Amino acid sequence: MRILLWHVHGSWTTSFVQGAHDCVLPVLPDRGPDGLGRARTWEWPSSVVEVPAEELATTDIDLVLLQRPHELELASRWLGRRPGRDLPAVYVEHNTPVGEVPDALHPMAEQSEIPVAHVTGFNDLMWDCGRAPTLVIDHGILDPGHRYTGEIARAATAVNDPVRRGRSVGTDLLDDLLDDLLDDVAEVGVDVFGMRVDQLPPRPGLTAHEDLPQDAMHDQLARRRVYVHLSRWTSLGLSLLEAMHLGMPVVVLGTTEAPMAVPSDAGLVTTRREELLAGVRHFLADPAAAQAAGAAGRRHALQRYGLKRFLDDWDEVLHSLA
Asked: What is the pLDDT of residue 39?
């Protein structure tokens, strides 16, 4: 099957393109958001090909995978065919609802030709998808392998655009965490990994690691003692699942899908600020407990968020639509 999709979420796409299908990515001269083409910091197979937007009308496409509302118009214009009517399509919703939650109306709600595939059960529950058929396909990721050493007694987190996204990704909670850790043990701090983390205001104990290649980031994360997930209102972060695959203990804000993703023996899930801080201190001070929790989290992540299950689920959906 030849599937047209846009390079929107690199980590999710990295998993999706591991399947048996050929994936066609539009490319524009400026390689902007609508024509980014292949990834530069992830390893993708040769079955992922770039096609200039002006050539899509003469390219064989079996199914369109939409991820943003305006892609429906883009695909119709570039292909000369309308997804959902002239060829099969599915819309992948990566995000939690915006606006008047829980009454937020999904952009695809007024049609019934294109199903909406949610990446978490929480998103499916919270979005009002109207007449659109819905389904849930949980995340699945490439196993980076058990790399955890925890040799560096610091907390780590991974987030993109922490300044712009602010409270939704818990950027303000970094200050609470740093205040607590620095008051407790002067040399302990937090390492933040991701895109545009260098925009964070400098402060003692905070080290920003800007836009490392994924493999290098995994190596660095696994050297830190504990992974902290501070997101208040985002979908289930793939960085959290990657940390669990690496064998890291996790301390997680108990919002959106996170309580369903992290078992009790893998770390701590809480909505209490003081418990969050205490959980981080606990794993920093007890390497043996950190090692045990990380091992439990890895076992769970491999079973529930493994790549084979993810690809099998997607194959079932794609073949039902084609």
From this structure: 86
